[in-house]
Each structure stands twice: as structure tokens, then as C-alpha cells.
Amino acid sequence: MPDRRTNHEQLREETLGKIRQLHNKFTIELLAVAFFVLFSVGALSDFAFLPPLSESLRAALGHPPSAGMISALLIVYIFSAIILILSRMMSGSGKAGGLSHAGYLAGFYFFYHFSGTLPENFWAIFVTGVTILGLESYHIWIYCAEEIEKEQEVLENIGYFTGRRKDGE
Length: 169
Fold this sequence. Notes:
By secondary structure, the protein is an all-alpha fold. It contains five helices and no strands. The longest helix has 43 residues, at 2-44.
């Protein structure tokens, strides 16, 4: 019966690997939240710690969009992101977009910064980010917890937790 034991050990290793991947997936979501919070701290001071852009670089970038246009795009973005996250939740998908959401939100901070209206619009972006990243983190947390529970059932079935296998070995 060494072949059966090898299959159990291989299944145990694969299952433990899946559990590690699920833990890593949730950790990445938390890192996206941390990145957003850290970036928000810099945005709160209107990126005063960064050197000002040179005139030649500003000229190359062109005229910034108006605050109204940026706000309209922010509204479209928040509704699109929420619908996307809710559809992932309803379908049971484990796809995550926390890092991309943090990047998009950083882009909104920069657009408002370049238009000169970041102090007036900081809280709109911050609340949008907290909402989107909170919902995304909740979704991934629930998904990973359910998947880890399934993998732990596999481990229980092969006797990993109790020391005895259910097949009588």
C-alpha cells in the first residue's frame, strides 16, 4: 500500500499549497489597502514632499482636465467598480482587483493634483477608495475563507488533522 500513502501525501502537499495561495491572495489585497492608505497620506499634503514639475514637463503633459471632468470620471469609476465587485461576489469568482483599484485611485489623486484641486477633492477619492477596497477585501476574505474550509475538509478526509485516515489506514 505504499502507492496509496504516496497519493495521500501528494494530495496533502497540494492541498496545503492551495491553502498557502489563498492566504497569499488575501495578503495581497491587504497590501493594496496599505498602498492606498500610504498614498492617501501623501495626497493629504497635496504631495508637498515631491519636487514641483518643471515647466518643460508640464508643457509636455499639456493642460490638465477640469475638476468637473475628473469628478464625472470618478463617479463613473466608482459605480463601475462596485458593479464589477458585486458581480464577482455573486458568481463566486475569486478574481481580485485590489492592486489595480489602488492604482486607479492613485491616478485620480494625481489628476486632481495636476489640476490644482486636490485639497478640495481629497475626501471624495478617499471615501471612494475606502468603499471600493473595503468591498473588494470583503469579497476576497469571504472567498478565501470558503475555499480554505473546502481544502481543510480534504485534509480531514485524508486524516491530516486527526492522525488517522478515514479509509482505515
